[in-house]
Amino acid sequence: MAAGGLFDQAENQSLSGAGRSFWSVLHIDPILLFLLLFLITGGLVVLFSGADQNMEVVKAQGIRMGVALVVMVVFAQLDPLVFRRWAPWLYVAGLMALLAVLLFGVGAKGAQRWLALPGLPRFQPSELMKLVVPMMTAWYLSRRYLPPRLRYVAVALLIVILPMAMIIMQPDLGTSLLVGAAGIFVIFFAGMSWKLIGAFLGLVSVSAPLMWFFVMRDYQKQRVLTLLDPQSDPLGAGWNIIQSKTAIGSGGFEGKGWLQGTQSHLEFLPESHTDFIVAVLAEEFGFLGIVCLLGLYLLIIFRCLYIAAMAQDSFSRLLAGALTMTFFIYIFVNVGMVSGLLPVVGVPLPLISYGGTSSVTLMAAFGVLMSIHTHRRMISA
Amino acid sequence: MPWGEFKDTVAERRLFQRRAVVMLILVVTMLGVLVARMYQLQVVEHEIYTTLSDKNRVQVQSVSPPRGLIYDRNGELLAENRPVFSVTLVPERVGDMEQTLAKLGRLLDVSDEDRERFRRLLQERRRPFQALPLRYDLNEQEIARLAVHRHELPGVEVAAELVRYYPHGELTAHALGYVGRINRQELQRIDPVNYAGTNYIGKSGVERFYEGLLHGRVGYQHVETNARGRTLRVLERENPVPGEDIELHMDLRMQRLAHKLLDGQRGAIVAVEPSTGGLLALASVPGFDANLFVTGIGVDAYRELSESPDNPLFNRALRGQYPPGSTLKPMLAVAGLDSGATTRDKTIWDPGFFTLKTGGRRWRDWKRSGHGWVDLKDSVAQSCDIYFYEMAVDMGVDTMHDYLSRFGFGEDATLDVSGALSGIVPSRDWKRAIHNEPWYPGDSVNLGIGQGFMLATPLQLATATSVIANRGTWAEPRLLKGVMGDVTVDEVLPRQTHQAIALKNPDTWEFVADAMAEVMHGTKGTARGAGRGASYRMAGKTGTAQVFSLAEDEEYVEEDVRERLRDHALFVGFAPVDNPKIAVAVIVENGGSGSGTAAPVARAMFDAWLLEYSGNENPVLAVESGGQN
Fold first, then answer.
1. pLDDT in tens, A62-73
2. Around Cβ A205, how many Cβ atoms within 10 Å?
3. Does A288 touch chain B (CB under 8 A)?
4. For residues A209 and B36, is the Cβ–Cβ distance under 8 A?
5. Would you say B134 and B118 are in contact if contact means Cβ atoms under 8 Å apart?
6. What is the rounded distance in angstroms from the CA atom of residue B201 to the CA atom of residue B178?
7. Which one, of B513, B395, B530, lies nearest residue B449 by Cα?
8. How far is B159 from chain A (nearest CA, A)?
9. pLDDT band with cut points at 50, 70 and 90 for residue A14
10. Residue B210 has pLDDT above 60, yes or no
11. What is the full DSSP assignment across A210-257?
């Protein structure tokens, strides 16, 4: 238990002290809030450069982040019990929405991702599933003795795979992987045995070639091939990755300075304000900037894992842990893709890339975490 | 189901915390991988990517030097550079060429000819990222329209380019030549560095001969461009060295007069200043508008020019090789006297025909009844053929060939006239080589009156006449009179190679000049009509050259056939006799008689130069170099 002891100190600190009166009433975790605000502000600064100094883009993103913060605060007010109680119903509703998307969804570029219900704003059910799937999995597993037995793991996997499959069919590989990851992390945190994990990883590596031949679309295969050899098509598919690596590499240790990035400002870097914004940061703020960014992310993850470890019941712990790791997956996939380690998948840099949907989902997740942290009961563990 | 109350919550919490630590380690490790990757890109491979990034944005562009201007001897501008706005495409940067062309077609007036020329350029070998012109001479509205739509048109640029313009295109086309787009063969020949920014090169004439002088040295600029190839700013610049401006001996007024005199006919006039060899006029009529060729002539326009029966593209002055006919007689007279084949006093009886042996073939005199008793001077003045037949036989081909060669026949004796042909001075060897036959005495008879195998260009006739005017001293014909800038004429003009013709009795020159003056002023002179009423003495010689045949496939209207079978009218001369200021050769194709058609043309040239223009010059060098720099 030595390792577990890392999270043990000051277990009930937040239940008492000066902070309790103010922040607890608001159901806000000040440390996490501060870290997030710092990240978002810094993100807007980089975005201003990435969007070629277009203030309109920064304003729109600021408003969106404001909305996301409100969503976070709203989620933070809800007791974790509410999430637990609603998890199965949300899950069922989510599956139906995904089915509806497949049947009569709207979208662009050959993928149906949006659902336009009369009277409701257009939304992406798959995005909601990033929250709902870990909730459902946590709900299911928290009702069992942990570590779960094999058949419960099997059921949990099914809970995860069903929406994943439906999202893949849209097709939206990136979101599907994030949704799947969120569910898998719940199972992992629940105590899935290492043997099983080993077997699972083995299965994944075996199924990879199968995925290649039966699941992946041509454009997805192309992305993998491009990653392996960007020079095969330097002006086409390889362009993005070559240009983003060039942007990152030319930034050097200290960077070219804010607004001085030639790759982004001269339009060599594609998607410089959305998926590839980290390349702008790397070009203009250099290796130092990247280390600061990743450090900030690490602090946020650390805080979230702490919140998870401090949670009072299994459902909260599993959910908090899984949401945290999903956040990390965003970071790793995005930075890995921009720096040429991973194939290009449409995953934004969390809370920095321009774009609304993922920001709102992420902030809602942080709201859930804050809810978990601030709705503590005065019971002994 | 129980919610946890009955579960071992402590154990579950411990389990979770252990897993969380594993995850934290995983997170730190994977973030470490990302940091390591960034370290690799940003620190280890930084140099590589800096280079790539600079290569992306910084383009080295060559700046073409402005081409040197060409002036006539009075500072009249003959070739200048006009800024022309053209729309160009860089194929490497244009995404969908068809779509872009279609879009441009909607914005601008792009003719099929433009399109066709563009496609031709597209297929030719070219430098990468070279902008290819689609249409020239955009007006302001079109430029504005392109500016509005430019974001939709990657790789499309409006380029301001200095394009050669010949204000007197038709008058000067044959003498100046023209520039045109660099073609594939030229691309192999030129210095790729110095021509990196140049699209045009001298194709003919002065433009070709002085290409190196007129072109200048290329400059460079480092520019920052964005991903779509738009130039954003100039980072560094090394200015080009402009080409040298040059001045020609040509007098545009003389050139214009020559064209006017031959207007509606086919022919050539070459006027030389004997003391310098400077070409005052070098006219081949009809001319053509050289400006058509600069940016690339359309197929139809070219066909019209090249298939015209008047052959305007043919430079008759330099490349028209005609039998010189009687205009060769003054040179032959010099040869006959100096070689001793005849004397000033020797007279012959001209019965109207000549035979080598009694009863043999008869060579006729142009005058059926004959000239009666004539000496050499009479024979020049009246153009008596019989005297020259006999003298030619007495001289023999070797002597004639020797003397004629010294007058510059059979070679390109010019210093800087690009494309001049050499004509033919026949000899025994020549006939053996070409016709595989021995030289017959009859061939000498023909050569005696400038017929037979002998061919000369108008420029050669003018040159030889100028040598007589100079009393044997050579001044090779040349176009270049002055260079503005640091270079001197002597540095760029080829060396003179011809020796003065030394005669046993130098007085022979005066005798021949006198004989030629008789042509113009004598009572029986063939061109006395043209010489009448002059305030100065002039020397000349008329000539006619027979048109042998028409190519069988040439199709002419009935009337034209008769017209085109008429003899070519020729004339050579100089004036004033004692202090020659101008020597002229005139040929009017199918003009009939030299005396009736060609001589008055020469007289008009003499008058213009001697009475009006000469001495009324403003040498451009004196004016310009004083004020400049």
1. 999 999 999 999
2. 9
3. no
4. no
5. yes
6. 8
7. B395
8. 21
9. very low
10. yes
11. HIIIII--HHHHHHHHHHH-GGGSTTTHHHHHHHHHHHHHHHTTT-S-
Answer whether A305 sits within 8 Å of B53, measured CB to CB.
Answer: no
Find the domain containing B394 and state its range: 252-301+315-613
Would an 8 Å CB–CB cutoff place B299 in contact with chain A?
no
What's the number of domains chain B is made of? 2
Task: Residue B357: give its domain's CATH number.
Answer: 3.40.710.10
CA atoms within 13 A on the CB side of B196: 14
Q: Among B1, B14, B227, whose Cβ lies nearest the Cβ of A1?
A: B14
Instruction: Indicate which of B27, B33, B39, B44 best probes the interface with A, i.e. most A CBs within 10 Å of its own CB.
Output: B27
Confirm whether B230 is domain-assigned: yes
Same domain flag for B509 and B488: yes
Radius of gyration of chain A (CA): 21
Q: Is residue B555 part of a domain?
A: yes
CA torsion B140→B141→B144→B146, rounded to 10°? -110
In this predicted structure, the answer to whether residue A13 has a pLDDT above a threshold of 50 is no
Residue A314 is nearest to which of B4, B18, B42, comparing CB atoms?
A: B4
The helix/strand/coil state of B79 is strand
- Side-chain-side CA neighbours of B52 within 13 Å: the count stands at 23
Q: What is the ipTM of this complex?
A: 0.91
**Joined tokens for residue A335:** 């930075």
Separation CA B282–CA B480 (nearest Å): 13
Dist CA B619 CA B617 (whole Å): 6
pTM of full prediction above 0.90: no
Q: Does A112 touch chain B (CB under 8 A)?
A: no
Give the whole-angstrom CA distance, residue B197 versus residue B59: 13
Neighbouring CB atoms inside 10 A of A202's CB total 10
